[in-house]
């Protein structure tokens, strides 16, 4: 069933065309059972018990963010609807933070919670009521708990270290797909990470999408492919801007992309196309899925396991990771989840280039003059064979020198 949902999330028309019950599928993927919720936390005690817990230190920021939420969705344009939804949103975010005080709220988490709320509780409560029914508040609350513990836990760490690691993974994905373009934008950003992807990772793109249906389709993809899937979406969006940056460079005198101003590059990359258009959204999800299968996290091109530790949410998203285990990881300092988050923009590339630059500057005639006496002492038959093999496999002058050295052996 999970494979069917994952496949359908990138099909033309998505889950709606496949007639998939989104609420049922999300609850299944998040491992939320209505029956278990009602048994574990009865409706008479569930939310009141959380409300009675000590306030979380981040609740002041929650209130500020909630007060500016739901302004982009047509479903919440009416003032009365917006107020009711904001009360629900504040209650569930505070409920999660109070139950799991080791989690840290961040700006953008409310965007994820907003989409979750409108999807799992689409019916408005009656006047004077907070929720349409006990089941709605149960499933929204528990689903937000699950997303916090198993999807965006790294974002809710004590510091930004795990997210810097995730941005490095996005960079590696761009490198794997298009190395020259990746090195160009890395040079433009200097020693910084590709920070344009920061809000995309933190909000799972929920803040960047202006309509609820498109946000739901992206969430379908993320929930059915796991927390790492957002990085493939981010890398795809960055790659989409290659032509735009090339055009900008051409207009500025034909300079290479890497010599563009960082602010200009950031501005271009930050412009996300309107994903409410079905064709664009389908293209984004399809290309991200192709990259997802071509470059797994642990492949040599990405080597995410050398960037983030096994305690990162990227490596603990299996169904066998319990809430208790996830909460134990959440209690660790952010630095405990990282191994190597340094930006290191094209450092290796530059070192290799500088190492061989002197050889590249040596005039060919002078190089040949110095080589001739050396070559005359080599086994000519072996040398010819070794040189031919070297050039056949894409060798250069350095390869010829190596061939000469090898030819000296009997």
Topology of helices and strands:
Layout: H1 2-8, H2 14-17, H3 22-29, H4 34-40, H5 46-51, H6 59-66, H7 79-99, H8 109-120, H9 134-150, H10 161-177, H11 179-189, H12 198-203, H13 212-225, H14 229-239, H15 242-251, H16 262-269, H17 278-294, H18 323-330, H19 347-361, H20 364-376, H21 380-392, H22 397-407
Helix pairs in contact: 1-13, 6-7, 7-8, 7-9, 8-9, 10-11, 10-14, 14-17, 21-22
The number of E-state strands comes to 0
Per CATH, the superfamily of the largest domain is: Ypt/Rab-GAP domain of gyp1p, domain 3
Structural class designation: mainly alpha
Radius of gyration: 27 Å
The CATH C-level name of the largest domain is Mainly Alpha
CATH topology of the largest domain: Cyclin A, domain 1
Number of helices: 22
| Whole-number tally of structural domains | 3
> What summary fits the major beta sheet?
none
What is the helix fraction of residues, given as a range?
Answer: 55-70%
List low-confidence stretches: 42-46, 347-378, 382-394, 396-410
How confident overall, as mean pLDDT? 83
What coarse outline follows from CA principal-axis ratios?
A: globular
State the end-to-end CA separation: 63 Å
**Residues in β-strands, percent:** under 5%
Order of helices and strands: HHHHHHHHHHHHHHHHHHHHHH
Can you tell me the CATH architecture of the largest domain? Orthogonal Bundle
Domain Rab-GAP TBC: 22-244
Pfam families: RabGAP-TBC
Keywords: GTPase activation, Membrane, Transmembrane, Transmembrane helix
InterPro entries: Rab-GAP-TBC_dom, Rab-GAP_TBC_sf, TBC20/Gyp8-like
